[in-house]
Write a structure and sequence with these properties.
By secondary structure, chain A is of the alpha/beta class. Helix content of chain A is 42%, strand content 22%. Chain B contains 20 helices and no strands.
């Protein structure tokens, strides 16, 4: 699925967190992990990176390290390109809104700028022994939705339950709303039929309102372990100002997020 | 009559009657309460009114020039129901009508005599200030407010097939809740603002007709005559309302515009023509060049009192008036495209208003400044009579007074006629052909409210209550903008081929 993964580490991540990330990556069929350290203080970061490398040993990945100096987001994107990575993986660190506004967020920047899938690992242990794992897949029924559903079903990323969520805007009148809902339910059913054999249960949900908020709300409601969603290509003027749904979902503190690019 | 199907009608009727009884028997108490609310709103929410009125104007321009300009307020192949002349006549009659005749001379003279604190009274600068602010108060902003309301109603009812109610416009935001308490509250508030707004206007209009008749035929003062005028006009507008919208109001409005144009042309020729043209050109230039600064200036350091009592009052008044005008304008604008609708509303009635102010305000200022006749003191002491005082200095003064009284009466009838129709429609779940019984109820009730409060002296208190209703309506209208955009975005994104 994602054979080569770029893992930018800033140095503040705990050893346990990195180990959980590594465990997660086994579910993605990952074979090679490139640990990236972007910092102005190479010495300090390098030391920490060595500590992390030991944590990967039990998972038998091919490990390599890259050290770069400069703007963090920019260097992450450059490294992903030069290393031919299939996925960028971020261990998440909670930041207050104020901190995010002042210092920015490398995760958000990467989501906005990259053409690669992005995985954001939240501090949520994902045990192999867990028997009731739920993935929430948010869809807008674009073509990419069908590619994403294939990823979820065909590869090693095995979950027990799937929740397929569509969050849209209400139509301007009751008749149009009926039509919209008919379309939504038929789209949800189509996706459900595509993956019904890969999960113990598949549930479909239609919601109305702010997409980002609805995804997070339903992830909490279904106690999802992972949110999977596609990044929309056409960003509206409001999303340029307020951020896209993908960016909003990536900042939730409840569960890990796997984001796919539009194509 | 089931409560479920007539909840807006019953609730509004109960509220109206309660307030009328309150105003009739305890006018001082009503005045005290309404003054308190009114004062608080004007004192504390002025900035909100100025910002929102400006926002509505910008929003209207965005709609006319932006990506949604080609959306038709009706089905794609629908043609406009009324001709341009009929449409503009009705727009003008409903939107400005009595008010313009009432204030056409009085407002510039009032500002000239008592301008904002930073301008010398009765000076040349005060004259320009007076004209510019008269344009400002009656210009683009009121129509920006009307556009938001009427466009929303027209779009949701004619294009989306929903009942022509203000609550219908909130479907994209609250969905099925428009049929619940929230929707009922919005519609009741709209009925409340309309009944009290129109009753106040009718009361003031009747007073001016009385003044005109006193001037022309030496009619003695006394409320009996004012009440008689209300009675006669009520008979005519109810008659007009029962004959139906397309016939009654259209015929009356067209007649009125013709009378209005005759009066304008006569005054222009008989008056100081070049002075009027100079006034028009200079004021237009001044108005356009300082539109943004006027729109957002409350003069907090000097002149705040003036801004509060004029600009803020007007903005609140137009917003309070907007449910009625919005519903009426929507009902006559079916089949027009958004761009045509916005520019039609924004430019044509406004231009006629500017011409009216230039001719009447300009003529009055010429009399005051050039000829040295102190007419402005009359404007301050008795607003309703100053127009007729101006005619005394013109040839055929008596004829002009009679024509103006006729004009006022017809505006009175068209406004009340439209309001009767709109109120009956709003309280019949948006039925385009509301029952005659409801038209009669609202027609008689409007006149009753105006008469009772004229006698008890509660008319001004009622006007303040309408202004109070404007505050929630300003918020409702901001949400309306959001709802409109949501609906348009949905249509363009998902329903266009």
């Amino acid at each position: 699925m994602f054979k080569k993964v770029l893992l930018p580490l800033a140095g503040y991540e705990s050893v346990r967190q990195v180990k959980e990330v590594a465990r997660y990556l086994t579910f993605f069929d990952t074979e090679e992990v490139v640990i990236l350290n972007v910092s102005s203080s190479l010495l300090k970061s390098g030391k920490n990176t060595d500590k992390y490398i030991n944590e990967f040993a039990e998972f038998h990945f091919v490990i390599s390290q890259v050290h770069r100096k400069g703007d963090e987001s920019e260097e992450i994107l450059k490294a992903a390109k030069s290393e031919n990575a299939d996925l960028i993986c971020f261990p998440w660190k909670k930041k207050t809104h104020l901190k995010r506004i002042i210092f920015g967020s490398r995760t958000k920047d990467a989501i906005r700028l990259t053409d690669l899938p992005v995985f954001i690992y939240k501090n949520q242990p994902f045990s192999q022994n867990k028997s009731d794992r739920t993935v929430l897949f948010a869809t807008d029924f674009e073509e990419s939705s069908f590619n994403i559903i294939s990823y979820i079903t065909d590869y090693k990323l095995k979950f027990d339950n799937l929740v397929i969520l569509n969050s849209g805007q209400r139509a301007p009148d009751p008749e149009a709303e009926k039509k919209r809902l008919k379309k939504v339910y038929s789209g949800l059913d189509m996706l459900k039929n595509k993956c019904i054999n890969s999960f113990s249960s598949v549930e479909t949900v239609s919601a109305i309102g702010n997409t980002g908020k609805k995804i997070i709300k339903h992830a909490k409601k279904y106690q999802a372990d992972l949110i999977v969603l596609g990044k929309n290509d056409e960003s509206s003027s409001s999303s340029k100002i307020l951020g896209t749904s993908a960016e909003a979902v990536s900042q939730n503190k409840y569960c890990s997020v796997l984001l796919f690019p539009p194509k | 009559m089931s409560f479920k199907n007539n909840k807006v009608f019953i609730i509004s009727l109960v509220i109206t009657l309660t307030l009328v009884i309150f105003g009739a028997f305890m006018p001082e108490e009503l005045d005290r309460i309404s003054s308190l609310v009114h004062l608080w709103i004007i004192e504390n929410c002025g900035w909100g009114y100025l910002l929102s009125a400006f926002l509505f104007l910008i929003f209207s321009l965005f709609l006319a020039l932006g990506p949604y300009k080609d959306i038709r307020l009706g089905t794609d192949d629908e043609k406009p129901q009324f001709t341009y002349f009929g449409w503009f006549s009705m727009l003008f009659a409903a939107g400005m009508g009595i008010g313009l005749i009432f204030w056409g001379v009085a407002e510039p003279l009032n500002h000239f005599r008592n301008p904002a604190g930073y301008i010398d009274k009765s000076s040349g600068e005060a004259a320009m200030f007076a004209m510019k602010h008269s344009f400002f108060h009656w210009g683009f902003h009121p129509w920006g407010i009307y556009i938001v309301m009427s466009l929303a109603i027209a779009y949701f009812s004619f294009r989306r097939g929903m009942p022509p109610l203000i609550s219908s416009c909130f479907y994209p935001l609250i969905g099925e809740k428009i049929y619940g308490i929230t929707g009922t509250l919005i519609d009741v508030l709209a009925v409340f603002a309309t009944v009290f707004g129109i009753s106040t206007s009718l009361g003031l209009g009747a007073m001016q007709i009385h003044s005109g008749l006193s001037e022309a035929f030496s009619l003695p003062p006394g409320q009996m005559y004012t009440l008689l005028i209300i009675g006669v006009v009520t008979f005519f507008f109810i008659l007009s309302s029962i004959t139906g919208l397309s016939k009654g109001i259209q015929i009356l409005s067209k007649t009125n515009i013709i009378i209005l144009l005759i009066l304008i042309v006569f005054m222009f020729i008989a008056g100081p023509t070049s002075y009027i043209l100079n006034t028009f050109t200079s004021t237009l230039g001044n108005y356009l060049s300082s539109l943004v600064s006027m729109s957002l200036n409350l003069h907090p350091f000097q002149g705040y009192e003036w801004t509060k009592s004029w600009t803020v009052f007007y903005w609140a008044w137009w917003i309070a008036w907007s449910p009625f005008v919005g519903l009426f304008v929507a009902s006559i604008s079916r089949g027009r495209k958004i761009q045509e609708f916005v520019f039609g509303l924004l430019l044509v009635p406004t231009l006629l208003t500017f011409v009216w102010f230039s001719i009447f305000g300009g003529a009055a200022l010429h009399l005051q400044i050039v000829q040295g006749v102190d007419i402005s003191s009359t404007a301050v002491s008795n607003v309703s009579i100053v127009l007729f005082k101006l005619f005394n200095y013109y040839p055929l003064g008596l004829g002009l007074t009679i024509i103006s009284v006729l004009l006022l009466s017809v505006f009175f009838i068209t406004s009340a006629d439209s309001a009767t129709y709109v109120l009956a429609m709003m309280t019949s779940n948006g039925d385009y052909n509301p029952p005659v019984a409801k038209k009669l109820t609202w027609g008689i009730l409007q006149s009753m409210v105006a008469s009772v409060l004229l006698i008890s002296g509660g008319l001004e208190a009622l006007q303040k209550m309408s202004i109070a209703a404007a505050l929630p309506f300003a918020l409702i209208m901001i949400l309306l903008c959001v709802s409109i955009i949501k609906a348009f975005r949905y249509e363009v994104k998902f329903e266009r081929d």
